[in-house]
Design a protein that fits this description.
Blueprint lengths: L2 H4 L8 H33 L4 H16 L2 H22 L10 H27 L2 H9 L4 H31 L11 H12 L2 H40 L1
Helix pairs in contact: 2-3, 2-5, 2-7, 2-8, 3-5, 4-5, 5-7, 6-7, 7-9, 8-9
Amino acid sequence: MDLIETLGFGSEGWGGALLLAALMTVVLTLAALAIGAVFGAFVAAAKLSRYRTARVVGDLYTTVFRGVPELLVIYLFYFGGSTLVTTIGQWFGADGFIGVPPFAIGAFAVGMISGAYQAEVYRAAVLAVSRGELEAARAMGMPTFTMARRILIPQVLRFALPGIGNVWQLSLKDSALISVTGLAELLRTSQVAAGSTHNYFLFFVVGGALYLLMTSVSNRIFNRAEAHVGRSFRRNFARN
């Protein structure tokens, strides 16, 4: 089987499977980033809270999920989740082992890891906002919601966007670890194709090239988003 046929889209080619796997990787990373954004926002609020208990909980979350290896977190969520679901199923009369959906548990595990890093990004972005602007808004009697919408959120977005781009790249690479659950993402599909054809070098190089392509495209998207937010902020500042 020649190179074109091996990587083609015919009945014996792996081109279509690799592209679908790359799409699965992007969708998984998007889901993880969204889950991480929710957890990250709450954890950042906890770490900025005036209550010591909330700060301790936030610090504990970021310490655990940034300190424990990502693969171990995925194993704990996947096998621990399956064990929990199996136990609950047995309470209701189910027999045998019940596995959890690899996509859902993978997105949740990577999202929890992502949330630990996003929390630090949001916390730093909030601290970077000028205190003088917020105090001036309060002195003018501006409602809290209006102050958040017009002053706090736009500046937090501007300061946080570069860090979120880095977290995206981290989550994109972490998604490869979900292959241990059997989900047909890019790394898993590259492994299956390599084992089926014995062209290990070829398919791992192609898989790496697709990861680099996704990284390059996402870098360009985030760079444009940063430029757009920066221009919008400067226009609003000049208008005010």
